[in-house]
């Protein structure tokens, strides 16, 4: 794999469908707390045009997106879900298979099926070489250079699918290893979803942002689209990365999505082309 400039891998997920109503789940309980008196009423309200397994898949996904079910939670057995939802075990298995294939759930042999934890570091080395002087692979340190609220420019508004001028949080971040700058990043977040970010001391952000989004804002990144391009370093970028003006930079534009395929973060990461590498496994 190639180093991921972000050091944060979203949970892979196919494009999601509209979430279904809660199937009788008592709030704020988990899937093991059901209100059976409402279960079949809710089942009758689901879109009957969808196959039953798809309805079940969508409801489980909605519970995960609402965080009724959290990463690491064990979900009930197929037999238990079959009884609770009033569907065949094969229907339950097909719904779970779909969520497993999307990377939302994972089966553990002999233990059961769990809500998958995001693996924030596994794609760290996808695009750039991040090594210490000793050759050890390292997660780059993060230094927030600037945090402010601005009116969304047209490009940001278009990416996040919000009205132009809506308040967004703009972050400028530098990634370093052993105090050597490797990446400069510009990050935009919709203010209404990430208000809590403004109250956190920038020294407490940590090296990875996605866990922060989930823990403090309830926003979970599950997938992302990335575009790679090349440009020349401006005066400011050259100063930040300690390069000569005009040095070639690799630009990685990432748009991150939640489980319902709503864009929740847009970032541009720039790093020296001399550290860029490309690796892909083809099967």
What does the model show?
The chain is of the alpha+beta class. Helix content is 24%, strand content 25%. The chain has helices spanning 36-45, 52-65, 78-85, 89-101, 154-160, 210-217, 235-241, and strands at residues 105-108, 112-115, 141-151, 167-177, 180-190, 223-232, 248-257, 263-272. The protein is elongated.
| Structural class by helix and strand composition | alpha+beta
Task: Tell me which CATH architecture of the largest domain applies here.
Answer: 3-Layer(aba) Sandwich
- Beta-strand portion reads 25-35%
CATH homologous superfamily identity of the largest domain: Chorismate lyase-like
Instruction: State the end-to-end CA separation.
Output: 14 Å
Tally the structural domains.
2
H-E string: HHHHEEEHEEHEHEE
Low-confidence regions: 12-45
Please tally the helical runs, counting DSSP H or I stretches of 4 or more residues: 7
> Which whole number gives the mean pLDDT?
81
């Amino acid at each position: 794999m190639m180093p991921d400039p972000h050091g944060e891998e979203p949970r892979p997920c196919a494009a999601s469908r509209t979430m279904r109503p809660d199937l009788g789940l008592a709030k704020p309980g988990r899937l093991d707390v059901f209100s059976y008196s409402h279960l079949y009423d809710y089942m009758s309200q689901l879109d009957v045009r969808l196959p039953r397994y798809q309805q079940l898949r969508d409801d489980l996904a909605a519970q995960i997106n609402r965080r009724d079910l959290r990463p690491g939670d064990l979900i009930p057995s197929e037999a238990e879900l079959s009884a609770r939802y009033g569907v065949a075990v094969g229907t339950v298995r097909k719904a779970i298979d779909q969520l497993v294939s999307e990377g939302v759930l994972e089966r553990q042999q002999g233990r059961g099926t769990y809500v998958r934890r995001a693996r924030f570091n596994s794609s760290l080395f996808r695009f750039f070489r991040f090594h210490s002087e000793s050759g050890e692979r390292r997660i780059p340190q993060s230094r927030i250079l600037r945090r402010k609220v601005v009116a969304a420019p047209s490009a940001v508004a278009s990416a996040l699918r919000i009205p132009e001028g809506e308040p967004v949080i703009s972050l400028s971040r530098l990634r370093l290893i052993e105090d050597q700058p490797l990446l400069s990043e510009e990050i935009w977040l919709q203010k209404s979803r990430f208000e809590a970010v403004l109250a956190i001391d920038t020294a407490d952000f940590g090296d990875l942002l996605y866990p922060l989004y989930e823990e403090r804002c309830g926003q979970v990144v599950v997938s992302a689209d990335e575009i790679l391009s090349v440009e020349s370093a401006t005066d400011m970028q050259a100063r930040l990365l300690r390069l000569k003006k005009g040095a070639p930079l690799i630009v990685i534009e990432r748009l991150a999505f939640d489980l319902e395929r709503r864009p929740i973060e847009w970032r541009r990461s720039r790093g020296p082309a001399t550290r860029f590498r490309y690796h892909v496994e083809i099967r």
